[in-house]
User: Fold these one by one.
Assistant:
Number 1:
Amino acid sequence: MAWMQRRWALPAATVIGLVVCNMILWLPLPTELQSWAAVGLAILLPGLLLVNWLMGPHGDSTVGERFVFGVGTGVGLLVVLMLALSYLPGGLRFGMVVASFNALVLLLAGNVLAGHGTLLTIPRLSRDGQLVALLALLIGAAFLRFTNLGYSELHGDEALVALRANDVIQGWERALFIHKKGPGEILIGTAMFVLTGELTEFAAHLPFALASWCGVLATYWLGRRWFGPMAGWWAGAMVATDGYLMAFGRMLQYQSIVFLLVVVTVLAVEHARQRGAAVMRYGLLAGLLPATALLAHYEGVMAFVPVVVLLGALWQQAGG
């Protein structure tokens, strides 16, 4: 795949992705399809581009690890951008939000064209039986999280978050500040509301289901790096079938976001510990991810416990 090593490959793929997502959002298509397009425009494209820019063309991470890094940073970029837009006078409109995410994606892709980014590379991935086991794990986790995702009506705390998202769209400046949790869950719901035109149960639940599913994959990679592929698989399987995490992975609530970002933060610091030359690249990721988790809920502080331990080990390895 020599063509994938050329600098124009990533911007070209980005433009194609942008065109597809924008067409789906502008056309009168089913809400489920528009919800996936909204996730692609607001989370996947910005996050994967930023990770590719930060981590470079080095083969020190797998495709799966880069994907979970991308989803985590994509959530962070969404929250920060929507927070900035919510501070502008007046309410939020479809054109404003779509233009902002398009500009962000093009800006990140432009770093590649300008020579400040990296080439599009495909990191090495194991092709033995471990890949089959991983695919089985991910398919099972996806079945438990994405099947009939919109069947349950918004209720309780979910309904409150949806109302706060509507307040943000209408331009009520206090909507985020009277919320007793962080603004993260509201802003994610707000983005889905504006981009799809209506906050259906499927649209509201989809980003959190994706985060929960990616949390399974992140747990697998972290367990594999620490204790081997067998331990990683069983750790991922326990997370995939955990009733608490599975239930909140199908709700408009912050828990799935915090869980994903905590695990991915630890994974980023573990990468930095194992590869001294990549400390700065993974350090930037390890700064953005827990900051986003704290914007979702103060429970994100849990990430700092294992991070402090790993940073202590890194400090010892570097001779102080």
Number 2:
Amino acid sequence: PLIFAGLIIEGGVVSYDSNMVSGGEGARVFGIGSSKQYRKDQVSIAMRIIAVQTGEVLMTISASKTIASHQVGADVFRFFDMRTKALEIESGVAINEPTNYAVRSAIEYAVLQMIEKGEAQKLWKYKKGEKE
């Protein structure tokens, strides 16, 4: 029972798009090379405020956050002993922005938009902080 609630906020993740942008570059000369790759995903959320007594949707907000990933690597490939023995060395690192951080950031941005839009629509007022 939501007897004393005036408003309810609900929402969810509406999309997760992988590889919206991806690419990279690399080069190898005489068996020694390096490469760099990147990828961008995007998570989108939707939230809305509903008046509990009437069921009216008062506001709907959507927000998105890009998730960035990149990888850097280097490698060496050589043949020895009349091309019968191979030496291969690889090294690299990949950094991926956590998905939960992106979802949380999108939700926080949507809540901020709701607060500002709700005040503009005169649904509520808030006291702005004083600068120190």
